[in-house]
Amino acid sequence: MSKLTLFKEYCEAIIRDGDFHEGLAPAITGLADMLYKLAEVNGNTELERKHISTESGSAIGTFWAAQCIKEIFRTQRFARGLFKAIQHVRQKHTGRPAHVLYAGTGPFATLALPAMALLTPKDVQFTMLEINPKSYKMLQYILNTLGLNSFVRHFTITDAATYKLRNDDVDIVLSETMNRALIKEPQVSIMLNLASQLSQKTIFIPEEIKVSLYQHDTNDKMGHKLDDLMVFDKKFMFELIEKCKNSEWLFEEKKLTVDLLPSTVLHYETEIKVYQSDFLKSSDCSLNFPEKLKTKDLIGRKVLKIHYTSIDIPGFRCQFLD
Ligand SMILES: C[S@@+](CC[C@H](N)C(=O)[O-])C[C@H]1O[C@@H](n2cnc3c(N)ncnc32)[C@H](O)[C@@H]1O
């Protein structure tokens, strides 16, 4: 079977309906294997492993960005969500291809590959942004080798958190530049920067990222939700853009009362609505892993003041008061 036929077969299996099916893991493994071999990614060099620090978070190195493909449900839900969103834009019969702005492609543009494999350049065009020159170079090679260049309207090495759009005919913004609890990586700044240059008609993928605070006891792993800390969706973004001028994003502080025992653990949970019926929850992938708060030696009733920051090292900052 030719490489291109195999590529299409993998991509078709990745976006097939259903949560888990027998073709899913082999398709992801097969596609990853094909891309790793083509790009010769091995993580042996410092250049491939090094992260890039920006004012709005860390852009993970080429080797780590490549690894993301192996997170089966992450790749499935994002790639399928994007594919469906493109179909929905196409149904509006605009007479032009759907235009996707893909911020943070990594070396494989993994999330866009099924759309490229199964649609035509008349259906969809991509503007691609990537900050890491090594990933950018690898992706150029991959796109050339797989004959996918006709899908690319524009591809730049740039910081997507400050990038100025060339035009506003973007139908879909796609970015997976995040970590659990929206820590460390620049998802929030990237989405806000792009949203601030686009209309509310644009589809943003993921559609919603919800970070909530949970309390549990070491004997009761399930715990209970104390509150939602941030529901990062289109409504949230456009309200913040309206409030904050000059892209200085200021996030509201929340105050919560917590009762801490020596055995109490507080943690953040992250749920992602990728697009419509595609979600990432619970232990679907590393983006959903719980993130613990530091509460060592704190006992009794406390007032917790908590707010998000998108600068330097993004994440929630908290303070416990008596
Ligand atoms: C988590 S990886 C995901 C890669 C790929 N999109 C995927 O889903 O498999 C995030 C990618 O976004 C890039 N990135 C992070 N911050 C960026 C920024 N501010 N501007 C452009 N690219 C960025 C990183 O270099 C990395 O390649």
CATH level 1 class label = Alpha Beta
Strand order of the largest sheet: 5-4-3-6-7
Rg computed from alpha carbons, rounded to a whole number of angstroms: 20 Å
SSE string, helix = H, strand = E? HHHEEHHEHEHEEHEEEHEEEEEE
Percent range for β-strand residues? 25-35%
CATH architectural designation: 3-Layer(aba) Sandwich
Topology record:
Elements: H1 3-15, H2 24-39, H3 46-49, E1 52-54, E2 57-59, H4 62-67, H5 72-90, E3 98-103, H6 113-118, E4 124-130, H7 133-145, E5 152-157, E6 172-175, H8 187-195, E7 203-205, E8 208-217, E9 220-233, H9 234-243, E10 254-260, E11 264-275, E12 278-280, E13 291-292, E14 300-309, E15 315-321
Parallel strand pairs: 3-4, 3-6, 4-5, 6-7
Antiparallel strand pairs: 1-2, 8-9, 8-11, 10-14, 11-12, 11-13, 14-15
Helix pairs in contact: 1-2
Bound molecules: S-adenosylmethionine (SAM).
